[in-house]
Amino acid sequence: MDETILVTGATGTVGSEVVKQLSKNALSYNIKAGVHSVENANKIQQYDRVEAILIDYDKQEGLQVAFKGTDKLFLLTHPSSKSAEHESNLVSEAKRSGISHIVKQSIMGADLEADVEAMRLHRQAEKAIEESGISYTFLRPNEFMQGFINFQGPTIRNHNAFYIPAENAKVSIVDARDIASIAVKSLMDSNRHYNKTYLITGPEALSYHQAAEILSNATSKKIQYVNISDEKAREAMKEAGLDDWLINTILDLYSYFRKGYASQVASAVEEVTGKKPIAFAQFAKEHVDAFK
Ligand SMILES: NC(=O)c1ccc[n+]([C@@H]2O[C@H](COP(=O)([O-])OP(=O)(O)OC[C@H]3O[C@@H](n4cnc5c(N)ncnc54)[C@H](OP(=O)(O)O)[C@@H]3O)[C@@H](O)[C@H]2O)c1
Q: What is the CATH number of the domain that holds 44?
């Protein structure tokens, strides 16, 4: 009988790409996509052989239904102060349901002593998986290139500029499609990726000035990076409706970037997928319309 893979966070940036790639490549698997809100379910309904199933991390009963008959799990929760608690519940349910392998979306710098709370929470969640005895693959990506569309997109389109408190920090930003490719390989060939941890970065560390130049070249319009203070960034994020926990986490992340900690370039994409990681220039060229 075919095995079943369940993708959580399936309508998000990484999850939707995992579903897309599984639908195309994992032909001998059943694929279930954990969908949080019905309005967003259309993001994955276009893909063949994918069954959408409602999951709310705050509702344990739904988890039991979703996990029944699942063999492998792609585990991704949205950033929140409750993420470690959510993931610990998901892991307990995975254990009860007999899931054999978990591929967990974590973060670069995951560590119980990290300055950034999201990194501490991710390590806590990784530990819960280690202690469960279920085999795992941990994906620890750096900042996504897709953030330039999802977060900086509006000001790039409207003011030809983006505003970040990163000074001259260099960050080895990674395309979410490369993270998804590693996730899919790890789900389909879990023996090879048994209890491995992958640091996932793009091919080069770029300053935001360099990123602005690459975006300018791709779009044929001058796009500027404006370094701003933490206070200004806080105001803008509050205005955009982000909660205080997320604002503090993002500001701590930029402080981590400014210290140079996010500039490391790792080889996992090429080692696992056999393909070179997607460069930011290619990403920019492929998404020109999102910046116009
Ligand atoms: N962004 C980065 O640059 C970056 C870098 C490294 C690591 N990470 C890590 O990557 C993860 C985020 O990945 P992402 O950007 O792909 O996520 P995302 O785009 O924000 O998507 C989050 C997903 O979770 C679902 N969701 C939200 N609340 C839920 C709930 N209560 N119950 C069940 N599902 C829920 C969302 O569904 P709805 O939209 O329908 O609510 C969506 O499918 C986080 O763990 C973050 O720490 C992010």
A: 3.40.50.720
> Which residues form the domain of 207?
148-170+203-264+274-291
Q: Residue 102: what pLDDT?
A: 98
Judge if the beta carbon of residue 57 lies within 6 A of ligand 1. yes
Report whether 105 contacts 183 (CB < 8 A). yes
Indicate whether residue 56 lines ligand 1 (CB < 6 A).
yes
Residue 223 in contact with ligand 1 by CB distance below 6 A? no
Q: What is the pLDDT of residues 161-208, one digit of tens each?
A: 999 999 999 999 999 999 999 999 999 999 999 999 999 999 999 999
Q: Which atom of ligand 1 is nearest to the CA of 11?
A: 43
Nearest CA to ligand 1 atom 34: 36
pTM of the entire predicted model: 0.98
Q: How many domains does the chain have?
A: 2
Contact indicator for 204, 172 with CB cutoff of 8 Å: yes
Q: Quote the Cα angle for 93-97-98, to 5°.
A: 120
Q: What is the mean pLDDT of residues 60-72?
A: 93
Centre of ligand 1 to C-alpha 238, Å, is 19
Measured in angstroms, how far is the CA atom of residue 9 from the centroid of ligand 1? 6
What one-character DSSP code corresponds to residue 259? T
Euclidean distance between CA atoms 172 and 265, whole angstroms: 6
Ligand 1 in reach of 201 Cβ (< 6 A): no
Instruction: Give the Å distance between the CA of 237 and the centre of ligand 1.
Output: 18
Q: Is 96 a domain residue?
A: yes
Rounded CA separation 98/213 (Å): 50
**Does 189 share its domain with 232?**
no
Report the CATH number that the domain containing residue 247 is assigned in CATH.
Answer: 3.90.25.10
Angle between helices 13-25 and 176-188 (to 10 degrees): 50
For residue 269, being part of any structural domain is answered with no
What's residue 45's pLDDT?
87
Decide if pLDDT at 1 tops 80. Answer: no
